[in-house]
C-alpha cells in the first residue's frame, strides 16, 4: 500500500498559541508530566477513559504524571489531532482528521457492523482494524493505542422541523443536514437525498438553534443528550459505529525509557478493555435519557434499513475504495458480509 509521504500541516490559531507557550515537542523523560487532551465534556466516555488511564498509569508504578485537558480547552478535535501529530500534545482522543490522510475517512465508513459484539471484534482491543489504522497513522508520526467506542451514530432533527425522514432518498429532499467536514460525510448524505452541509462540530449547536441546518448526522446517543434542548427527533439509522482514535505521538513514545513505555502501553491496554466492557451500557443509558427528555426516538423498519444500507454499499463503498484501495475494501466487505 502506498502511503502519502507529504503531509499538509497548517497550524490553527489554537495550535500556534500552544506552540508559543510550550516546547515544539514535549520531551519524554521519566518523571515528566505529559498532556492528554480531548475536546468533549466530562459526561463523555473520553473522560472515563482518560481518568481510568491516569489511575492505571499510577498503578503500573510509572514516575510520569498526566496533565489532563478535557472539554476542548486546547481546541476542537481536529486541532488536538494536529497537535498530537506535532508532538505538542503527546496523547489525545480524537476522530480521524482526513485532511492529513484521506484514508482516515475509513473510520466513518457506513454499515460495517450492526451490533456491539461484531464492533468489538472489528474495532476493539486487538481488533481487525488496529493494524490498518496504525499503517495509516505511521506517516503522521502517530501510534493508535486503540479505539474508544461511543456507539452507533444516527440522525437527529431540530425543534421546529416537522419532518421525520425514514425513507431515503424520498423523505430527505430539501432537508439541510449537518455533516462533519469530511468527504465521506458529504457523500453519504448526498446519496441519501439530503442537502449535506459540512460544518465543524464547534458550530453545530448554534446552527441548530438558529435554524441554519435542519438536523445533524453522525450522532451517537451521548451527543443527542448533550444537545437535547434543540432537538425533537432521533432517527436510529445506526449508519456507522462511532469510534475515536486514542493516539500517542510516535516519536514521543519511542523516546521514552523502555520501562516507562511499557507502563504506558500496559495502562492503555487495561483501560481499553475496561472501556469496551462498559461502553454499550453507557450508550444505552444515554439513549434512555434521550427518550426521557421527550425526544421522539424512531426506529427504521427492516425495509427502510435495507434501503439505507444498499444505497451506501452501492455508492459510498466504491467511493471509499477509490481512496483506500481494493485490498482494504475487500477486507471490509468480508467483515460486513457483502458479496
UniProtKB/TrEMBL annotation:
Keyword line: Signal, Transport
Gene3D superfamilies: Bacterial extracellular solute-binding protein, family 7
Keyword Transport: yes
First and last residue of the signal peptide: 1-30
Alphabetical list of Pfam families matching this protein: DctP
GO annotation (BP), single: transmembrane transport
PANTHER family in alphabetical order: C4-DICARBOXYLATE-BINDING PROTEIN DCTB (PTHR33376:SF7), PTHR33376
UniProt record similarity statement: Belongs to the bacterial solute-binding protein 7 family.
NCBIfam families: TRAP_S1 (NF037995)
Name this polypeptide is given: TRAP transporter substrate-binding protein DctP
Organism encoding this protein: Pontibacterium sinense
Gene, per the UniProt record: dctP
Amino acid at each position: 500500500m502506498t502511503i502519502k509521504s507529504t503531509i499538509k500541516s497548517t497550524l490553527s490559531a489554537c495550535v500556534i498559541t500552544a506552540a508559543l507557550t510550550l516546547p515544539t515537542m514535549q520531551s519524554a523523560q521519566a518523571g515528566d508530566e505529559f498532556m492528554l487532551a480531548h475536546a468533549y465534556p466530562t459526561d463523555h466516555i473520553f473522560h472515563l477513559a482518560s481518568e481510568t488511564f491516569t489511575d492505571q498509569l499510577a498503578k503500573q508504578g510509572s514516575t510520569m504524571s498526566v496533565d489532563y485537558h478535557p472539554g476542548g480547552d486546547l481546541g476542537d478535535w481536529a486541532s488536538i489531532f494536529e497537535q498530537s501529530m506535532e508532538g505538542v500534545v503527546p496523547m489525545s482522543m480524537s476522530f480521524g482528521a482526513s485532511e492529513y490522510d484521506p484514508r482516515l475517512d475509513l473510520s466513518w465508513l457506513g454499515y460495517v457492523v450492526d451490533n456491539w459484539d461484531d464492533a468489538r471484534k472489528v474495532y476493539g482491543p486487538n481488533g481487525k482494524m488496529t493494524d490498518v489504522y496504525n499503517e495509516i497513522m505511521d506517516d503522521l508520526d502517530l501510534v493508535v493505542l486503540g479505539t474508544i467506542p461511543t456507539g452507533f451514530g444516527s440522525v437527529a432533527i431540530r425543534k421546529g422541523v416537522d419532518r421525520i425522514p425514514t425513507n431515503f432518498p424520498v423523505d430527505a429532499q430539501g432537508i439541510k443536514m449537518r455533516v462533519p467536514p469530511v468527504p465521506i460525510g458529504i457523500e453519504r448524505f448526498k446519496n441519501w437525498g439530503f442537502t449535506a452541509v459540512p460544518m465543524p462540530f464547534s458550530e453545530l449547536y448554534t446552527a441548530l438553534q438558529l435554524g441554519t441546518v435542519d438536523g445533524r448526522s453522525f450522532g451517537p446517543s451521548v451527543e443527542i443528550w448533550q444537545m437535547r434542548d434543540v432537538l425533537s427527533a432521533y432517527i436510529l439509522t445506526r449508519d456507522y459505529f462511532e469510534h475515536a482514535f486514542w493516539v500517542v505521538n510516535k516519536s514521543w513514545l519511542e523516546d521514552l525509557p523502555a520501562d516507562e513505555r511499557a507502563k504506558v502501553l500496559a495502562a492503555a491496554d487495561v483501560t481499553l478493555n475496561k472501556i469496551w466492557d462498559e461502553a454499550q451500557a453507557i450508550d444505552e443509558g444515554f439513549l434512555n435519557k434521550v427518550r426521557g427528555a421527550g425526544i421522539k426516538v424512531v426506529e427504521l423498519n427492516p425495509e427502510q434499513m435495507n434501503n439505507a444500507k444498499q444505497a451506501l454499499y452501492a455508492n459510498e463503498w466504491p467511493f471509499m475504495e477509490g481512496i483506500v484501495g481494493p485490498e482494504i475494501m475487500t477486507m471490509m466487505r468480508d467483515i460486513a458480509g457483502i458479496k
